[in-house]
Batch of 2 targets.
Target 1
Amino acid sequence: MPFIPHTEEDVREMLAAIGAPDIDALFDEIPATLRCGKLKQLPQAMSEMEVAGLMSARAHQDGAPVCFIGAGAYDHHIPAAVWQLASRGEFYTAYTPYQAEASQGTLQVLYEFQSMMAALTGMDLSNTSLYDGATALAEAVLMAVRANRKSKSRRVLMPRTVHPAYRRVVQTIVGKQGIELVELPFDPAGGHTDPAVLAAFDGQDIAALVIPQPNYFGVLEEVDALTDWAHTNRALAIAVVNPVALAVLNPPGEWGQQGADICCGEGQPLGAPLSSGGPYFGFMCCRQKLVRQMPGRIVGCTRDLDGKVGYTLTLQAREQHIRRSKATSNICTNQGLMATAATIHMALLGSEGLERVAAACHANTRSLVQRLGTIAGVAPLFHRPVFHEQVLRLPISADGVLDQLSELDLLGGLDLSRDYPELGDAILVCATEKRTEPEMDDFQQKLQMILTC
Amino acid sequence: MPFIPHTEEDVREMLAAIGAPDIDALFDEIPATLRCGKLKQLPQAMSEMEVAGLMSARAHQDGAPVCFIGAGAYDHHIPAAVWQLASRGEFYTAYTPYQAEASQGTLQVLYEFQSMMAALTGMDLSNTSLYDGATALAEAVLMAVRANRKSKSRRVLMPRTVHPAYRRVVQTIVGKQGIELVELPFDPAGGHTDPAVLAAFDGQDIAALVIPQPNYFGVLEEVDALTDWAHTNRALAIAVVNPVALAVLNPPGEWGQQGADICCGEGQPLGAPLSSGGPYFGFMCCRQKLVRQMPGRIVGCTRDLDGKVGYTLTLQAREQHIRRSKATSNICTNQGLMATAATIHMALLGSEGLERVAAACHANTRSLVQRLGTIAGVAPLFHRPVFHEQVLRLPISADGVLDQLSELDLLGGLDLSRDYPELGDAILVCATEKRTEPEMDDFQQKLQMILTC
Amino acid sequence: MLIYQQSRRGRRAAAQAPLQQGDLSGIPETFRRKQRADLPQVSEMQTVRHYTRLSQQNFSIDTQFYPLGSCTMKYNPRGCNTLAMLPNLLARHPEAPADHSQGFMACLYELQEMLKEVTGMQAVSLSPAAGAQGEFAGVAMIRAYHEARGDAARTEILVPDAAHGTNPASAVMCGYTVREIPSGPDGDVDVEALRKVVGPQTAGIMLTNPSTLGVFDRRIEEIASLVHEAGGLLYYDGANLNAILGKVRPGDMGCDVIHVNLHKTFSTPHGGGGPGAGPVGVSKRLQPYLPVPMVAQSEGQYRWLTEGDCPESIGRLSAFAGNAGILLRAYIYACMLGGEGMERVAEYSTLNANYMLKRLMDAGFDAAYPERRATHEFILTLHKQAKQLGVNTMDFAKRLLDYGFHAPTTYFPLLVPECLLIEPTETESREELDGFIEALCSIKQEAEENPELVKGAPYNLPVKRLDDVRAARELDLVWKSDKNT
Amino acid sequence: MLIYQQSRRGRRAAAQAPLQQGDLSGIPETFRRKQRADLPQVSEMQTVRHYTRLSQQNFSIDTQFYPLGSCTMKYNPRGCNTLAMLPNLLARHPEAPADHSQGFMACLYELQEMLKEVTGMQAVSLSPAAGAQGEFAGVAMIRAYHEARGDAARTEILVPDAAHGTNPASAVMCGYTVREIPSGPDGDVDVEALRKVVGPQTAGIMLTNPSTLGVFDRRIEEIASLVHEAGGLLYYDGANLNAILGKVRPGDMGCDVIHVNLHKTFSTPHGGGGPGAGPVGVSKRLQPYLPVPMVAQSEGQYRWLTEGDCPESIGRLSAFAGNAGILLRAYIYACMLGGEGMERVAEYSTLNANYMLKRLMDAGFDAAYPERRATHEFILTLHKQAKQLGVNTMDFAKRLLDYGFHAPTTYFPLLVPECLLIEPTETESREELDGFIEALCSIKQEAEENPELVKGAPYNLPVKRLDDVRAARELDLVWKSDKNT
Ligand SMILES: Cc1ncc(COP(=O)(O)O)c(C=O)c1O
Ligand SMILES: Cc1ncc(COP(=O)(O)O)c(C=O)c1O
């Protein structure tokens, strides 16, 4: 019996100890009317070898096209050590570290994670993860509305330059609590949120302003002006950032005069494989004074009976298992293993390594855009500086071009027409540090070929 | 600096402590005339990411053709747990367990390995590994000659049905010590070593007789008669066996009246991936009275100061680091990690699992041979029972046929003409438990197509 | 020692970053970071050694028995990990087009189908990232259903007192107020109390059955009709599904929506706190509201169902398709079990739990519900020990760690005083259960003979008992280089 | 507890074997096994738990500093493991035809070229499975060379007394008798003694330089010409190559044949006792005798060189091409180092060794060769401590384990009494070295103040000091179910 160790003798003796005639008798409290039959629609059991064959075939079927898509999920190199360590049974199969003394490994890792995330974002502190970047933003919005005692409005300004899926997720999650998301338009030339558009809200009761950096188009926002506007208007500033970009960009803790209040984002670029979109992890950092509004687990350093340093989950009174309907969030199981991987990833890269990664991505994307820009009808759509993604205008329907590239085993970027029809035939491209010169040349040639056919 | 942790400050202070002006000064005892320049022929350093790209490309280039070759290396399913455990740093990066108290993990695993190998072969004891099956046979021959005090001849009978590469390796290794290998012919109809051929050696001084089971052609030998002949003639009987086959075949410890004296073989089928031929491991088991002639490491169970059970390397006086020129072998580093993997593999399979594997291989090979036998001109060459390999006659040159199959991404078996020209156009095929019905059908169709073109 | 304390200025794992420093001139100075972030500066070997050693300071399924009630800490097959991490699967971008996605989507589609079968529900969406997000999605669907019918009066969600904390928290996140329903003395929901509060303001009830009291609610049909008749819907918290696989299906109990914790019943790893996955299944009337994306199949081709295909969907719960890698692990696990194997899960986990309960009762422990069958878990109460000996549940729990066993769930459900919620799972052997039973008995004896010993536990772990109060009072959440730890 | 002790009749990890019992009717009863082998009958989780726990009872590079002299226990990059285990590489059959082998063979070919460059030799064969097999191959080539010249009188191989035990053992396996050459008081080979024994019976000499005495033999050129003039050849044991990479090359020292321990210098893992790899490099005159197979390249195509291509080859050393997976790991490591990185290996390993030697001498330890530079390793002798305090080297070694450090090599080389051969390698940080130095100093103090404490060590490991004599006298090599362990 796969994964069941019982011998026939065990079963016999255990039933005897219980005083039950057979295993089925143990289900005698279930009303007979409800008892179902066999699970016939389920397939027959397969051995590990058979599933291995199946999964290999399926993986093979999908291939491994060269990837120039970013759009919220980035193809970075992950040091081999990261997952060799994170997959160790002691990390991989441990539960949430409720029994602190028996979980010092995970707890210390998470304390280090918090320290690293705080350092990277320039914020005071961090939690140990949320589901993903989109839900982290939703939680940040809820937290800001809770925390902003000066505001009564439950109105939050949300630039259209924020990842479209994030905006949808935020809507799904915060909408039920009567929070209103007010969309901010983007500058059609710069692809950024012109701080001038905020003038329309001057003096209004706004709970928070969301500020992406870089934004969905890869463009760098005027984060200082936006942050200062928020604070001037008694709104909280919520940063939503790419953590790899922070290796080179000014961290949210230092935006404007006072820095952002809450900083969140998608942790995937820190050691999570693309893996069809998950598991990734959301991160959230904030200023010290907001700590009791933070959702999710937090690890604190403490002492044991002998005065020795140790780590434990803390401020649990914020959480659902203690505070139930009054908790800061319903989150329970989060993305601990991904945070573990990210911790190892950051330790291996260090800030210099992460800076090199960021710089290589930036340089590669520029170099790609320059190559593609030599093709007639292909040009950057926005003029402002970008981090490692850029929107390109195509001379014909993006959809068809991308399909043809896909057939040639190359993912040429994301079609923006679904979410930004106003941009026309535009694609969002990204070249991480993993993309090579030959791969970029190849993209250029294939695109050229398609466009001249 | 990859893999070097020194900061500039470290270097400065360490040199100061030593009292050396620079690192180069530490090499001042090397005669200046010998000092070489830079290693210019070596390529520039690559990052892990770059090597990952290179290795993926090379792996991709070689593909993963469906494999019907056996011939000493078998494509078995290896439970995922085997290498996830064996790759754990504590096993993977440990040294030979000389400091027993700090190596109880490895030592206990190897003690369990010895126990399992002894159980599988029916012998009294086992060492902890030799390089591979071929060198294990060479060591077995040396050991037999050393151990057989009744024989003065240094002559060893070696059937031609033993793996040709093994025979070559044995020749390379034992030839220098004046040991003579006398080849025994095989029966052209049965593909086995007819015990009758031994009559020619009756009464001669023979140190040992090698007995393969199954033999290189997959054919089952008359092991009882061969073993008994050896013992009647005061020769030692050396079994060279496939360990998976032993799940269903009579173990060497029970061959004939007294059982084989030494049993060796290739451990690859017990958890080692095909991996281009290595690392695999040789195993060697023997009867109790030969233990002091055994080459390689042996682990013994003992007690610590408190009387607690523990494990340690034992009978080291056989080995080169103690006995130097009088050691039983020069072997030092062996294949410990592969033995570790094999131990986990055997624990997961158990004897029933291993029996199912063996049975599935046998059934698949029969089924393959039956399919291929429907093609005109294709037929088994030998009539005797086989384990999981079989020699097939082809109507045209095997070489060309196999090349064409290879182009169709199928490895159709091994061309026997290199080693057994007398067999004509013959191939050795194998279908392990991993081969599926569709793969076998595919083989049949492709072969049919090639042969009818 | 923290990784930070091994940091030295200028040290790094040089093979892990690009060898050439890229050109940042495209980013104007004003946007640039002025000072490098204070990440540790360590070598690759230091990192490997540090995290290898840290890992050894954890209890885990791969090293210890972990009878954590309602958490279903069963064996996580290693094959699931290996196969979900095949290179092409890891490399697949979430926005990869359909022609590079058929293999992956086939797995998700089949998993949806399997979950329909085991839960008896009409349709399934895999996207919730954990149980709590499944709850959110479920309650949001309930709300969407009532709203679609123009029924705005339903503002309340009923939650039994034994429910997990995520239930009320999720209901609140959906804009509902929560009303608690007491459990009766036999552990079943107090139907009379329920009857009193159910009404036109009732949007639904969130039931866990078997509940976290370790019993199967025998009046489930009655509860279902009570709520349904009042116009409310039935939410089923599937965290304890392990207990009933193939015996009874939530769909057959009249549930309208259910979440399944794949990191429990489907054996995906807990990872020290996630990631998990909490797919939701619904009855026909809630199908339009399922969260996107989902996978549809027609003529052997798979495609995503997104907002456009499902205009009434409650929407999207994460940027992409949820914890895809976890879904693959669950799929692989389900393939290895098959139908028969799935049924055995409930059988043997229930056998193990009842065996332990019986033997512990024989040994003098008090069961919270001694007259009831255990499901896959059961509750002991150490009330007596706490009162008579001053040794409480936490002391027992900590002392168990010294014996090499992870502690059961403690002090939950809140309504049973000094409780231990024990769930052995089907993957533990009888010898392991016997060892645990013996350990509990020894501790009981220790508590009687030498209570201080138990109250000072643990002794054999990397740290002794930790000061939680200090942790919360003197908040120390990030490392600072000037701190003298 | 042994895995056997967790075995129960009828239990098994059922997902790991074919689900259907295959048909064995093609194998007549007479060939069949009568009784199943006594392998453990355990569940998958029991196996995982057992071997995970056992692994935690090991010291290893990934957990501890391992200053094991002449063993070069440096960091084993995790990337080498991952990349050498890419699925297609693992799946490649050793008999796969050339069109399915070009990628793999390219790696081997390039590794051959790299080894030629770092050793300064003319040609390389990768096939030896470890150092000792490399030695065997090297001596066999020396023999083949003399035989080819019809020189049958050379029956002796010279081996310095500091040599590793494999050297004399390998020479004997090649049919030679061994004559030992003493070392001089400065650690270099005693050239006068050598001069006396070298002659027409000399087939060759096996030199380790730097030797296992931790010094570089300054008279190497003199030794080389002495032996060469007598018609003998020079074998170079490359186990200590780590010390001189990019500084001096064996080929430039006049060596005729060399083996390289990839599991030392090229950082492939030791695996608790292998697998390793011991490629051999030769000068022009020995090239024809190299063991097969090797990889040749022409016009961008790679092909195997086998017996047919190399008629004078000493032949084949293993069934296929040696420890291919280990060769890939070494290749990947070399790619990550490149030329410059390779030179740094010698520099920093030598820096580390000299730093430790100096500080330990300052702390009052006796160096075996206090006037000499350390190479990448050095020797302390605890003769004084043993005599005065009765605390010997083994006691120090065992006590070091308590401090969390693996012991250095003890009692080797045999000629230095009570010796510790210490090799820190380049991958250890200064802090780690300092920690080790402090530990040795504390133990010295303990030995002075409380010798019994040290003599009773270790105390903090899974077992206390083990009885080796009992192990050898009451041989217990396999588990028997009726044994009461
Ligand atoms: C009964 C019950 N419901 C819900 C949950 C929440 O699930 P998750 O932690 O996956 O969010 C849990 C988790 O422990 C639980 O035990
Ligand atoms: C100096 C020296 N030579 C040779 C060897 C033998 O190498 P291997 O163990 O790889 O056979 C060793 C191994 O320890 C060694 O230190």
Target 2
Amino acid sequence: MTAAGYTPSEMMIAAAARELAGQRVCFVGIGLPNVAVNLALRTVAPELELIYEAGAYGAQPARLPLSIGDPTIVTGSLAVMSQADLFGLYLQRGLVDVGFLGAAQIDRFGNINSTVIGDYAAPKVRLPGSGGANEIALHSRQVFVVMRQSKRSFVASIDFCTSPGSSGSGRRGPSVVVTDLGVYHFEADGEMRLDTLHPGVSLDDVRAAIDWEVLVSPTLSQTPPPSADELRLIREVLDPDGRYTR
Amino acid sequence: MTAAGYTPSEMMIAAAARELAGQRVCFVGIGLPNVAVNLALRTVAPELELIYEAGAYGAQPARLPLSIGDPTIVTGSLAVMSQADLFGLYLQRGLVDVGFLGAAQIDRFGNINSTVIGDYAAPKVRLPGSGGANEIALHSRQVFVVMRQSKRSFVASIDFCTSPGSSGSGRRGPSVVVTDLGVYHFEADGEMRLDTLHPGVSLDDVRAAIDWEVLVSPTLSQTPPPSADELRLIREVLDPDGRYTR
Amino acid sequence: MRDAVATLVRDGDSVAIEGFTHLICFAAGHEIIRQRRRDLTLIRMTPDVIYDQMIGAGVARKLVFSWLGNPGVGSLHAIRRVTEGAQPTLELEEYSHFGMVGRYIAGATNLPFYPLRSYEGTDMPAANPRIRPLASPYGDERVYVVPPINPDVTIVHAQRADAAGNAQVWGLVGAQKEAAFAAERVIVVVEELVDESVIRADPNRTVIPGLIVDAVVHEPYGAHPSYAQGFYDRDNAFYVEWDAIARDPQRLTDWLETWVHGSSGRAEYMERLGPTVRDRIRPTGTAVAGAIDYGEYR
Amino acid sequence: MRDAVATLVRDGDSVAIEGFTHLICFAAGHEIIRQRRRDLTLIRMTPDVIYDQMIGAGVARKLVFSWLGNPGVGSLHAIRRVTEGAQPTLELEEYSHFGMVGRYIAGATNLPFYPLRSYEGTDMPAANPRIRPLASPYGDERVYVVPPINPDVTIVHAQRADAAGNAQVWGLVGAQKEAAFAAERVIVVVEELVDESVIRADPNRTVIPGLIVDAVVHEPYGAHPSYAQGFYDRDNAFYVEWDAIARDPQRLTDWLETWVHGSSGRAEYMERLGPTVRDRIRPTGTAVAGAIDYGEYR
């Protein structure tokens, strides 16, 4: 908890949840995105339909799921599907409006690395790899990225492209990046643009945590802090143990 | 019923059932093949495993199924599968040892027509078409053909090739053809060869019902007539109403 | 049903009423006839009696299919009349069963083609130029491919669904899932409209998620004369009777007048069929699946 | 389990223990370690802790996978040790999730390739030359394709099966069906060995037919520390604990000595874990699926 009365993670979750206003079908994994999506369901997007990447639709978890395949997302869900159906019939078919991604590295065009740090054949760090991230990036109508930012993660050039951004290819790439410092969207030409700074964060803080000359919105403003209602839902309902948000 | 004490259909069924000795997995539709396969199960091939083309494995029908999708093949079966799985995982995967086909026309190399009589674009008779016959012919280890024969069905040149025979292509084609007149197998070069004549049938009868110069086995013999046990099973257990066998 | 068809099925649409021998939604087909839709492209693996009726009624200009017969009985005579002879008036586009399944899969998963090991050595690709050969980029194998099909409307019958269209099916499942996901619009017709809690109690049985469903219609006996596993049997006598009706264009027209145009909908149709038919298609008993436990995880 | 692994898993084999977070057969993985198999190619979408244990034990020379992490916890440290730095000793072959699924589907349906709309615009095809572009024969679209995978052995865990291996699963079904049909040999491990009549009472639940199964092993709790829907919960505490064990090669070796080599099998392993663990993974209650009726048709 900071002096502000909430953590950077709580700010990230509240900001990510607000971006879901007006969206319908969301593809969601466990962790921060799961909390953000469930917050949106209870605030700005009550009609949101959730597809868990482990293969369940319409889940009503009785507890906060601990891992992607927690049995609580199955019991009481509307449908369970195989991985073949999940990726083929739902994701590749284009039924998903919003997919969430994390990233070890991201560049100014939203290209994402979650595979290796260093050389692919002899890596410095072997990361988990794509999983479904490649397909989530290519097939969701919009991709939301939620990650902490630093000069090591917001880099001029990523070591490996796991999920494509928008650069020069006509592809969409991510549409929103929410970090612990601010919220970014993308220009028509695909470049990431800082739109709001979280309360207490300066532009210099951002520049110190980004490895390229950041494009700043001419109407740069402050992210509204988490409301009392948002904080209550996060703390009392969605993550009472503070697993993802402390 | 003929003077012989059994019908030509009963002879066909008994002869087809005997050919199943030693086989394991059989892909079966409704009608004559269903009766033949169930006769084999009770006589020469007790270990036979049945896959019904409507999508059921290990069926134990409580009555003789009336159509390919009779609900009695589902209740009490071991597994139900989609058409995608049936054709992909079972048939194309190569799990099926024997598939049965009927035919409107067959040629001396086992090429089969079940699509049209006459020109495809303006047919004299529009037949049902392939259904699964194309895949059954291509993917079963052995194909059994059961059909009545005449100069109009055993033809020198078929009007349309729905299911491939063995001619000149290295493909297998059918391995057995059982008709109301006799039993045929195939030479190494793929030509159909008459091996046995049913009791009471002469070689002239066959020649009058076949539109090419038939190849006759040098050891041509008589098909053993249906045994008392075979007839009892057909008449009392498998087709008590005589739907397929009278 | 009237509203669903009025809103979601338009003249000129491509329409798939799927269900492999099981759960064929005759009620929807009749409503399409009743509302006198025209120029439809009808899609089905096995056109069955329902498409013989619809084509006999003149709703279609084209048929996409893989097996054209009256199962266990013989021919579909109304369709034969418009496809035989020198001047067929119904356009046909023909595949094998797996070819049709592959088209649905490609449509349902947004693939530009689906590969199959069918067709080699036959006349089917020559008869349908949409069936094309494709070399594997691994080694020297060649397969055939079929293009995606995306019906404007897919109509499926299910044993039960909730109000949002989350539909559960048991017994033969055919290609309904693939046909529904491939479609632009989906109508689900059910024997029982159930509370969402019934669906949630057994999510592995859900074949079609409400997510893709545009209308849910509660229409008991909507699959007669085909069947609904556990609810009623196939009315084989009607399939046999249809053979004689469809052979005679006048009898066919009279049948449509009486049983389709002359009937307000499925309830009246079943009322007129009366207790004799309902008795003959009643299952002889029950065969209840054993309970399983999903477990509560709090 | 001892006999099944002794007979069906050989040095140098490719082995897939599938199960997406659910029903991961740790018991089979441990038996493979116990019998000191070598030079295996291990195949799994999510290698998970079981493959970290197996690779830490030295059974494998290669890993085919799509997501290499300890779900909800972090890294798989034993695998990282042999894949990072200048001289990795474990060969990796890497796909996305759908790429792995596509490989299983191609293997399971005997296709020479499976098409996907994945990979465009990324470095994944450059890193794995088995991922290849392919032009659609319809129009100018391009997709990527992956080759079939046919494991020598696939091992799946299920809630129940009969003696012939007809296996029923509920809850998440992952890619077990495809992985099993793709394999040359299949081992099914179950929580409950049931009479054939239990399977026949609900044929729509059967995911794997006995037809393709070579051995059935009755091994309650065989999926711990993963879970079996309705039987026990995921043992998350162990997944967290494994992070610390696997970081330290000596601790990992000690763990394997104690819990794998020092244990005769799953029964002894569960006995040693004791009531504390069994209590913590017990579901908090039941959630029984409603009955359905298949109908009797005589």
